[in-house]
Amino acid sequence: MRSTFMGLEASKRGLFTQQSALYTTGHNISNANTPGYSRQRVNMQPTAGYPGIGLNTPQMPGFIGTGVEAGSVQRVRDAFIDKQYRQESNKLGYWESRSKAIEQMEDVLNEPSEFGLQRSMSLFWQSLQDLSRDPENGGARAVAVDRGVAVAESLNYMDSSLKEIQRNLHNEINVSTKEINSILDQIAGLNKQIKEIEPNGYMPNDLYDARDVLIDELSEYMPVEVSYTPSGGKALDIAEGAVTIKIAGSNVELVNGVERVNVEAEYAKVKGNEDVNTHPFNALKVSDKKSIDERFEYDKAGKLTNATFNDFKSGIDYKELPKIGKLKGIIDSYGYVEEKVAIGVEAKLENIKGLYPDHMRQLDQLAREFAKAFNKQHGNGYPKNQAVENKDKDKFEGSKDFFLTKELSEKQQKETGSLKDDDYKNITAGNITVNKLIQDDVSLLRAASENKNDGEEGNGANAKALSDVQHKLLPGLDGSSVQMYFEGMSGELGVKGQQAARNEFNAATMMESVTFRRASVMSVSLDEEMTDMIRFQQAYNASARMMTAVDETLDKIINGMGRVGL
């Protein structure tokens, strides 16, 4: 026999369930503008019918429903779209960092423009041509020397600016690894909270959202593989559990439950380079996993003594790094060694690769071959009368080379005479300068040719030959002239810049498309929530009206029956 009060219980359950749905709708509306929030829904399910199943079950026609209940409150997500989003985030992170690095290099090279290296060289060649027409003009000599100084200073400026950007990239790598470690720490902390809540039968949806936001941020730096471990206990079937994160394509676990690793960038030493902020990337050091509690060490007084990881026992070299991601993009621009170098072993310059090392090496080669060709021709000429060999031998010998390194003093130049071929390997874009003897006495500029009488008045044949150096095809520059080689450098950089910008645009377009699809699933639509609010409100009202009807029925049974004739 069914209970007389059964209808009240079914209606009461309807009231409570619709009320929960209304509360969840209100929660969605409140978080409509919260970044990373996933809309939630109440999974309604009918309660067990009456009568139950068993030997003592009363025999009666039909199987009467007993109402509804909120089985769970679940967030609305699509794991496949999440994976797509993170894959596109990898690509966009790489090409954004790559494009930014190339743009900064283009700003330094500043070609074509009225203030770049090409303009400085054009003015230098023009000044030498002017000098060839009037070699006795002190003003023309001073202009030619000053224009040579301007060329050297342009090379110096470009080298120092590129190195400064490279130092910034070095800092950016270190900041990125610190950010990665912070994200890993937060994910491990959220895993701990989730593992404490899920076994009690609850769904910590807001903690899931916070964790997914962190995984999204992590995927911008490097591609990751995500898996889940159930929490056990009374955890619901739809509970996600603790997350385990690996670097994609490797067995390196970054987070496993409440344990996480620490990562740091390791740099290779370079012979002769004391600037540690420009040493190439060697490997990504990975520590052993520690729990978020174990990594904090305290002394007897309870004072925190150590909150870092010191046991780096493995490393991921450049070849093992994932091919995409913001971190990889920064490293590719900054510079790296393809083959991991053992600690204490110096990396060879020819093994250092990367956007900035490659272009700075080309710039050094340009400065070196330019100085070598110009000095060779300059040494074939003669200065003005007052500085010829028989009058001032030291100045005559010391001024043979027009371009020197900043480290080479006047005394050393006088002692060594002209530079030897092996000496030119020390000339770089960063240290090239005009011989100080010539800067101090412009008459030492060798404008006269040697096939004339020494110091002959009006002879400017060598100045013309110096100007013609611009057209010489130099073996050290791949058979190109100085101008052609620099144009090739600028053109190559332009092509790389276009490719990076195009790939960045494509990645951003794909990212926007995936973001839109993702938002269509997980984001809060206020129109939809308003519709749900009205729907749940009407259901709540109907349950309340049903309870009133049952109450009136019970009132008739209790107060109206058994009083026949009264």
Features:
566 residues, alpha+beta, five-stranded antiparallel sheet, elongated, three-stranded antiparallel sheet
Can you characterise this structure?
- This protein is α+β, with helices and mostly antiparallel strands and 566 residues long.
- Among the domains are: 6-76 and 526-560; 117-157 and 358-489, no CATH class.
- It is built from 13 helices and 18 strands.
- The chain has helices at 6-30, 79-109, 117-133, 138-197, 205-221, 326-334, 355-379, 393-398, 410-416, 436-440, 461-467, 482-522, 526-560; strands at residues 40-46, 68-75, 224-229, 242-247, 253-256, 259-260, 263-267, 269-270, 281-287, 290-291, 297-298, 304-306, 312-317, 336-337, 346-347, 352-353, 403-405, 432-434.
- The strands form seven sheets. It has a five-stranded antiparallel sheet, covered by helices on one side. It has a three-stranded antiparallel sheet with strand order 7-9-13.
- The mean pLDDT is 87.
- Residues 11-37 form the Flagellar basal body rod protein N-terminal domain.
- Its main location: other.
- One of its GO terms (cellular component) is bacterial-type flagellum hook.
